[in-house]
Amino acid sequence: MKEIRAVIQPHRLAKIRSSLRNIKGFPGMTVSKVDGCGHHLAKPAQGIREELTDYSPKVMIIMVVSDDLLEGILQTIVEIGHTGQVGDGIVWVTPVERFIRLSEQINVVDC
């Protein structure tokens, strides 16, 4: 099992969600509104006020997926999330040691 986290432009979410739902076995996702700033600054900050407000709205997608779904889901997020503009976002994957779905009767999956 792997955890996928993606920080994307908000206007890309609907299309990513729609495409992910077409993947057989898609487990669902959690979506949060976040603010962020990247390593690239369009212009240098002039003072502390600019430094504290130099954030843009983003959306973070979090999901735990089986290893066999990983590449297809990553490909979907990257292809649809990419616009070629500064601030498109970032995607990363981390291993998951245990997974418990609370809606099922204490069904612990050791990964």
UniProtKB/TrEMBL annotation:
Origin superkingdom: Bacteria
One Pfam family matching this protein: P-II
SMART domains according to UniProt: P-II
GO cellular component terms attached to this protein's record: cytosol
GO-annotated biological processes: regulation of nitrogen utilization
UniProt GO molecular function: ATP binding; enzyme regulator activity
Full protein name: Transcriptional regulator
Taxonomic source organism: Methylotenera oryzisoli
